[in-house]
Amino acid sequence: MRRRQEVVDLQKFYLQKAEDKKAEEQLIEYLTWLESEKQWKLKEDKWRKEDMARVNLMKQVYEDRAKAIGARQIMADEDKWKLNYEKQVIDDEISRMQAEAEERKQRDAIVKKNHQTDILKQINERDRE
Asked: What is the pLDDT of residues 36-69, one digit of tens each?
């Protein structure tokens, strides 16, 4: 009986040991899975941050390019406005000079005509005398 009891106790002991070993393996497996999940989350967070950094960098590059294009457009518009303004100033100056030349021409014609009239009067007076 005692021998039988020892065998039964020994079997119970080995069964308990097997269950403990199985539970320990499951615990190790669970802890390994938890650590693996933690590592994946860290990697995914890192990847997400890198992606966000890339996206932000690209946004900044596009914004800088848009600003540069806008600045170039403003400069081009200013140059065009200056060119048109200078053209207008030159056209106004040409018109003013042409008007002055025309007025001078008319004055010279009047002076010439008056001079001719004076000469004719003098000739007529001389002829009368």
From this structure: 999 999 999 999 999 999 999 999 999 999 999 9
Around Cβ 2, how many Cβ atoms within 10 Å?
6
- What CA–CA distance (Å, rounded) separates 83 from 71? 18
Long-range contacts from 110-115, C-beta under 8 angstroms, 24+ separation = none
Phi, psi of 18 (to 5 degrees): -65, -40
Distances in Å between the alpha carbon of 6 and those of 2, 10, 12, 13, 20? 6, 6, 10, 10, 20
Greatest distance between any 2 Cα atoms in the chain: 188
- The mean pLDDT of 78-96, rounded to a whole number, is 97
What's this model's pTM, rounded to 2 decimal places? 0.48
Token pair listed for 125: 């007076």
Q: In one letter, which amino acid is 117?
A: T
What is the C-alpha to C-alpha distance for residues 99 and 109, in angstroms, rounded to an integer?
15
